[in-house]
């Protein structure tokens, strides 16, 4: 296949040069006015009539005739059978909440499980837990889909064939006798990261019985946090960032706001700091130094693009300025940046914070700890405690993957148990782990899926989902969490602690009894209180007083060729969530890529090589190579390539297999996340990437995502600046929203708080039964998400600024869609909601063409008709599952409004709008979304709508939307005088 024509970057430069004032854009194709982009945006309904050849046409017509006779066949009768005896505490239609937790890379994520008639349907953040404060990440919420995944392992397997627990117990008894005879010599256990005290106690019993056994831990993208602390303080420690206290935050390749097990904790604390600054209580400056775009860089007050060698020079220069170390040779603009930064850090001593990415080398992180120590930040914005993860068991340090590979190569391993990990896929290719497993006398894999490691093991045992078993562990802030099951195991599974006890010869071990034994110090009242809260009070980690040792940071030379950064995917992480359709179809926050990974490259290099999105390339370094599609990443360093892990799965499930490419060939045991000296070569052909960045384009006269300088935002709003179609704000709110006393529902979205994390998108999908459509349909513009988060760029493609704009239905008071519908299927309710009447809709799609905000979604097919019964069990029974040919959109979670209305009626009181939350509002870690009754002064909407920051999207159209926005705030470090500013500076 021949190469496609590259983008016209000269046209992009000319257009930017001709613009007056800021230029907002969403894609390079838009800037270049690429014909394919123009055609896609001008198509009213993209890909409505796909091209068919004659053969395919005849096939479809023949099938239509064959199935036409089925129209005369009536649906099989169904009978609703009532309870013979009503279960206790089960009321049909009533929602119950239970505090529990799910695991993510060894840290528990505290959640509330929402159940209907004993069936879990949704996970929400636990508002009583300090680690999340009621918020939940996209990955955490998707755990409910994993519970009902039909591809989850349902029974043991022996050499790929179905087996039974009884057969396994019979074989395990023989191996247990061998281990007893040798005191465990040759027995090796590889464990996923864990902070569970109960699991640690079971492992201690293993070592007590088999003292010669060896334990290892494996977390593919954990980084070097503990090694860095050991270098700086002489022992491994857990890092705790108090972002709510940091008025100046400097990040070196550390995406604190990005996806990961600590995302919600960091985002909520950062949001608290931003709110305080917006109210005039201190500052909230964020400086990002990074080579590739990230969420932290997108929200930064100032972002500097630098590769690894350049970051090393800047950090060594800061050490010289603050800690009197040797100064490196710097360019003029680098000297200017270092002096500005050092002055700002000194001015905020004790109120600033410097951080480095977990996957940076240990020396870099140790140098950052030294800087924080010298600035007086330790004990204030940065603290340390004992490690939260289990690093040793019974006094035996846990080995790493490299040590296990050495033992395998030396022939020391006779029996291997891989517990809740997948090294055959997640380990670097040089480990040749799959081949090593095949050569072992006995290998056992235990996990939730029959994955790559399971396929090379003798036995595979299915583990229970966290929502099916009792478990414990530590949250990201160190608070102990208790996880209770929401449902009996759906399949023949065991928990990890039960499995370890079973292998010791206790087949009747029960996870509840194990957990109660661990926490036997709690009396019955304290135990029940802990279960209700989901955590144990008074058991937070004790801060450790430390002092960082002086450090000499070695110089890093600029490599020849490309620097390759390998990072976990924002949605499927390292591949453990790759079989979850919600996460596969979730547009990545910055690239808006779905259903695949890609080789991210800077626009400058793409122009040089003649590449555009989807073109195939080959990346090679030290004999390892991958082939995949390329994606252009504005704001990326030209000498850096970024790869995302989690794809190229060969075993797991129907959703995961066949998507993207595996990054393992480029990883090494010694340096698994960063490679130097890579070569990139274009290949023929292209891969159709499902990117949503160009979808649902709005034509606006003003910037959709606005910014205001902080000093301007604090000034009172002028009457002339208020949107002309809004009535003047009365001195006191009206007593009711309508003639019958109905509320006036509205929503306010604070763009200064929004970090673009997509947690709201998954919350909406889980709450409202939004279907998954697949990569092909996403590429055709048919993704069904009711809420989208638009990503806008401002400035040049080499170093743009980013803005995020969540766009739900606006619920316009003058709604164009209502005027366009010929059958009155979209109507205006008495409370101001723009409502859909599904059984009236005949699918003309007129409303979608009339909507200027592009928030309506059409069911082109029956997306859910073929879903497995297990997946159907996850759906929210309070929300209609829409059929083919029906339009749908955001409803402001009308089912929650109805539930609150019923509760208020039963209590003979008004609706408590302060406690009524939409799904997107409830899960937001930074509290960027506010929902309430506009007719009530205590709803949290009034005073914010009267500020200078308030505006309506596309206000020139006079649609009077109920959903409005607060502009983001601009701030930054003071600039140097003009005569001190060097030429060629790149710190913008």
UniProtKB/TrEMBL annotation:
Location of the 4Fe-4S ferredoxin-type domain: 745-775, 832-861
Domain of life, source organism: Bacteria
Native source organism of the sequence: Stutzerimonas balearica
Protein name per its UniProtKB record: TAT-variant-translocated molybdopterin oxidoreductase
Start and end residues of each stretch annotated as Disordered: 714-738
Membrane-spanning ranges: none
